[in-house]
């Protein structure tokens, strides 16, 4: 996770700062194939988020399955693929087709390389319970390939990025289910010592994943249709139903990580509600508001939480005792609210500036608190990204 978490935090900070300055002050953006909006969405979904996904799966799956982690040479190759995809797309406006081929091979190669690296873990007896990660990595490789096939043919390719966002929502549900109830039960034990552990109901999670998958397929093949709208509303309802797992008597506001994880799911539910209302023509600006609730709110906050927890626990450090991670999460939620306000048409320039400032401040805080542990040697006698003892 070490190189990929660093890349994810740097990408979150630098890409949003660049985009915000372009909107507010006219800073130049890369002249990429498909235009500036495609570059913005591509780099946040397949750049920032993909780096965080890589860091998570390379750390979590070996731990879940008690198998060996990635060797340094394999990590270096995966990092080069990530960097090659960023460079290729950024240069596509000048170098044209050769740069796009570089970006395509690197971007598709990254999830395939992750899958190859994690294959022993997924094929182990314990790995059978985690094979959804392998299928989702394969699907991300497919959506990345589809994006570049359309781009190389001069066709609009934004639908593939929307599909990739849907896959990230599925990955969020799958990954969060591995950690959220542990955090919730830890909070229950701290607040009510001796209370029995709470066991989440798998059908709720399966229903949420099914509805998100159907909404993603419908939006891909029939965007802005009533079918896509109703399925997006179904996904919103299913995620809200999933949140009932958290209503078990533990005051969420008393524990920062439980409250932030709850907020992540709530942003997901509201995001799909926005997409649904927009597709049904019931609220102007709702599609853009919904999309940013999913990206800034759910994806951004989810990555913030994972890096905040794993970025200390898996380098031999205790959880951050200060208010910084809670403050950063609050800044992300305020940034998401500001971006929603901009999408709905209320003083967009002001709200866009506030959204960019809040996002960048949150990830600057995270970088300050987490980055030193990622590049310094461990002091607990363990190696690499081994979990806490």
Verbal overview:
By secondary structure, the protein is mostly helical. The chain has two domains: 1-156, no CATH class; 180-192 and 200-373, no CATH class. The protein is 76% helix and 0% strand. The protein has helices at 2-25, 36-65, 72-90, 92-95, 97-123, 131-152, 158-191, 202-221, 226-242, 256-279, 286-313, 324-343, 348-375. The longest helix has 34 residues, at 158-191. The radius of gyration is 20 Å and the shape is globular. The two termini are 18 Å apart. The mean pLDDT is 90.
Give helix and strand order, one letter per element, not per position: HHHHHHHHHHHHH
- Helix coverage percent of residues? over 70%
Q: How far is it from the N-terminal to the C-terminal residue, by CA?
A: 18 Å
Kindly state the number of beta strands: 0
Which word captures the global form?
globular
The gyration radius over C-alpha positions equals 20 Å
What portion of residues belong to β-strands?
Answer: under 5%
Secondary-structure class: mainly alpha
Largest sheet: none
Quote the average pLDDT: 90
Number of separate structural domains: 2
The low-confidence runs, each spanning 5 or more residues with pLDDT under 50, are: none
Number of helices: 13
Offer a quick outline of the entry:
The chain has 389 residues and is mostly helical. The protein is 76% helix and 0% strand. The longest helix has 34 residues, at 158-191.
What is the topological layout?
Layout: H1 2-25, H2 36-65, H3 72-90, H4 92-95, H5 97-123, H6 131-152, H7 158-191, H8 202-221, H9 226-242, H10 256-279, H11 286-313, H12 324-343, H13 348-375
């Amino acid at each position: 996770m070490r190189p990929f978490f660093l890349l994810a935090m740097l990408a979150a900070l630098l890409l949003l700062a660049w985009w915000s300055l372009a909107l507010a002050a006219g800073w130049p953006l890369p002249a990429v194939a498909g235009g500036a909006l495609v570059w913005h969405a591509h780099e946040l979904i397949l750049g920032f988020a993909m780096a965080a996904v890589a860091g998570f799966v390379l750390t979590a799956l070996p731990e879940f399955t008690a198998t060996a982690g990635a060797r340094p040479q394999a990590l270096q190759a995966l990092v080069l693929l990530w960097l090659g995809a960023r460079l290729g797309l950024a240069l596509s406006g000048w170098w044209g087709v050769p740069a796009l081929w570089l970006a395509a091979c690197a971007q598709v190669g990254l999830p395939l390389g992750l899958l190859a690296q994690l294959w022993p873990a997924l094929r182990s007896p314990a790995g059978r319970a985690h094979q959804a990660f392998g299928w989702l990595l394969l699907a991300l490789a497919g959506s990345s390939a589809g994006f570049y096939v359309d781009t190389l043919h001069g066709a609009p390719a934004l639908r593939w990025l929307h599909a990739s966002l849907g896959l990230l929502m599925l990955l969020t549900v799958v990954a969060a289910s591995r950690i959220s109830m542990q955090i919730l039960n830890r909070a229950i034990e701290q607040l009510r010592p001796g209370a029995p552990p709470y066991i989440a109901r798998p059908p709720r999670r399966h229903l949420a994943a099914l509805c998100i998958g159907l909404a993603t397929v419908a939006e891909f093949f029939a965007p802005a249709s009533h079918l896509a709208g109703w399925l997006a509303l179904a996904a919103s309802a299913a995620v809200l139903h999933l949140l009932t797992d958290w209503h078990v008597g533990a005051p969420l506001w008393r524990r920062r990580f439980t409250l932030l994880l709850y907020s992540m799911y709530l942003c997901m539910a509201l995001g799909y509600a926005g997409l649904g209302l927009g597709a049904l023509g019931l609220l102007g600006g709702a599609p853009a508001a919904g999309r940013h609730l999913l990206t800034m709110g759910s994806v951004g906050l989810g990555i913030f939480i994972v890096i905040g927890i794993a970025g200390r626990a898996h380098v031999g450090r205790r959880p951050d005792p200060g208010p910084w991670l809670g403050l950063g999460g609050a800044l992300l939620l305020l940034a998401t609210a500001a971006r929603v306000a901009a999408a709905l048409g209320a003083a967009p320039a002001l709200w866009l500036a506030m959204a960019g400032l809040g996002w960048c401040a949150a990830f600057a805080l995270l970088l300050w608190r987490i980055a030193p542990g990622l590049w310094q040697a461990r002091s607990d006698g363990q190696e690499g990204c081994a979990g806490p003892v």
